Amino acid sequence: MIEMKAVARMSVLVSCTLAFCLFGNGCRDAATEATGKLGVETGTAGRSQDRPVLHSLHPDSTEVGQPFNVQPNGDSAIAAQCANASTGTTIVFGTRALPTVYGGTNLLTAVVPPSLYSTPGKMSVFLRDERGDSNRLEFVVRPVSP
Question: How many CA atoms lie within 13 A of 13 on its CB side?
Fold first, then answer.
């Protein structure tokens, strides 16, 4: 059974992670700190022996050069709904591992550099950690509409 303190920290962690994804990285340190405490206190958070599973990306597409989930500093952010994520799970965009914020076993977020959506095409996105790689989903970069 998870203690109420751990549940409260998880709620703060997810809120901070979503705030990071949507509004900026002001909660990044708080999310990292809460994640560490949550994993230690519950002893099982994100420690499944199963590989991570990627369910969906938010967003899953953009136009060439069009930022998405724009942060206050202008960065684009992506959220990954998943299962079996751990604090060591990273979002891999194409061949590039992105610095990833852990929001719990079901949510990860990361900043996506403009170079990764500067040309049209499909980019494979997956999760990676010490247990292996997840399934892959596509992030589509569409040509600019006339």
Answer: 25
